[in-house]
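Sequence in, structure out. First:
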Amino acid sequence: MMFRLAKSFAFLVLLIIASFLLLTFVDCQPTFVDNDCSRSANDTADSNYSSRLSVLLNYLSSNSSSNSFYQSSSNGIYGLYLCRGDVSSSICQNCVIAAVEGIKARCSSNETGIIWYDQCTLRYSNVNFFGKPQIVPYTLLTNIQNTSSPDEPNYGAQGLVNLLLDSVPRAKLKFGTRDDESIKRYALAQCSRDLNESSCTRCLVKAKGLVDQCCSGKVGWRVLTPSCSLRYEEYSFYQLPTTPIQPPTPGPIPSKGEKGGGNKSKIAVITTSISVVVIGLLLGFGYYAYLRKRRKRRGETTEEILLPTVEGSYSRRNGGGMSLTDHHTNVDVHHIDLKTIKAATNNFSATNKLGEGGFGPVYKGKMPDGQEIAVKRLSMTSKQGLEEFRTEVMVIVKLQHKNLVRLLGYCLEGDEKLLVYEYLSNTSLDAFLFEKLFYNSLLLYRGILYLHEDSRLKIIHRDLKASNVLLDDEMNPKISDFGTARIFGGNQIEANTERVVGTYGYMAPEYALEGLISIKSDVYSFGILMLEILSAKRNRGFYNPDLASNLIVHAWELWNEGRGDKLIDPNIEDDCPISEALRWIQIALLCVQDDPAERPTMSSVVLMLGSKSVNLPTPLTAPYSAYRGATIFSHSSTSGGETGFMSSDKSTASGTR
């Protein structure tokens, strides 16, 4: 009986492995798209062209196991392949092998040939094309149905593609993707890696021009050229970001007598596939056990802190100082000893004090080399403890952007917890709301977009407000105070928390009342900041004797009545056309809509602010939560616009609806 059970179990395992292996091979099969062959070589004096071409193609194929891009030449024939930037090495190799066989069958008697698969492109020519952008021959593919949205050409495709046209030429691998989950649109762009930045830009712009001629209003399209490609769909068609294989310097072509790496490559694919299946089975069983262990927690909303844990790894340095190390990223945060900081700030003299924040007092200092610094000192009575201190250090040390404040170092000695930043002479935005700062101040959207989409981490700031936007010598804004920031991992788009942190008046309603966090939380705060900048009025403490409302409600009612110009600060009218200011008010109202699904993403906000040709959606309804929030927040115990902390009582919150 036991033997039969063991035999049955072994058969079941073999059956599962065979099924997975079959699915793996099916999934790895590349999808042929199109090819083009030109200039027949039959009439030339060189009768050995096909055999010489075969040597080159086999050599390219032999390199596909370790390179996602490769170029080489042999005996006057030039060739390269390029795998899509998001595919795995095994899929890339399988695609190149298929492309080599496909182009041999279709174009071996031609001097020039190119073949496109969904996962890779392979081309050759008897003319050197390396580093030269080529748009022809090209292939255009488009979906049959048209979109039902009249704004699709601008708000959808144009927005995402324009962002890619800006970022992909500067990317190391000349590849990028963009998405807007709020409207379910996805885009991809790629250039051949032999192109420089300007050549890549020219190719993508010309490719986009081809699309504009044929595919305006289509819900999906693709254009493939020899040097670049663009694709836009209503579904996610690309893989999650992975670490790509770096292309090495091309090596010599093997002699004609060598067989290349075709057979070895096929064997490698089979071996790799089997290994992947076995590992997948083991991971699957492990994941199943993990799910069973968590079954008792089914239906429970949890808050996973994805920020790397800063372990208590301290080493003595600089006469008693400590070094704080993030073991997950091997980031060693620069330590500045307490003695140096005390000397720089005149022992935290009152004359050096710049102000007070939720973290504690902030002091101006001057280092021995003459560099001016700003020192944030954790107050003993501050509600921000060691965890917020660690969060701020480990978040901001991973970020580099001109619209984010720069952390120079930290100090953690005894009871002292200090953060040392670059000194910004013009303090914060809230001190200048009544000045002519609107253009520069609105540039802070770049920093928010970086946090949400372009940094190595997806970060929700959670406390965007005027006092957390600092200004440098040229009045450029820099976002500061990351102690309450939240890091999202992978495809995570939202999270719940029982502990709501931030500043009342800038909090999105779903966050303040229900503890729901998403990138749309920061979008809401940005909308408030826009209204404050345009009106030179503060949302907190706003008072209109004719209306029992706050700034959001006041702005909505004026805009809805066609009197939006009454909201605009007279000081900016000389420098900002009324039509442009009214457009910004509409964008701000889109950002502060009650339903987070109706708010735009920051990439959409960037597009709307930067292009007057983009048609703006109409805000749907009056911000009911603003009326409700004015009452709720008026009873809070915080004051002076400082950061507040509260526990979100889910049942009470839903009872206030």
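Second:
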Amino acid sequence: MKHCYRCGESKDDYRFRPNQPYWHQWCIRCERSPVGNFPLPETKEDVW
């Protein structure tokens, strides 16, 4: 489990891109969410 620094949720590792620095770990959903339109619904494409 990893912790997303944008949405604050703890999620399984497959919800994150590999090789992100530990000080900047965003889940795939947060990476595709534009600023101001947050949060987008989580879909099956949000897995690595």
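Remark: Residues 1-48 form one domain.
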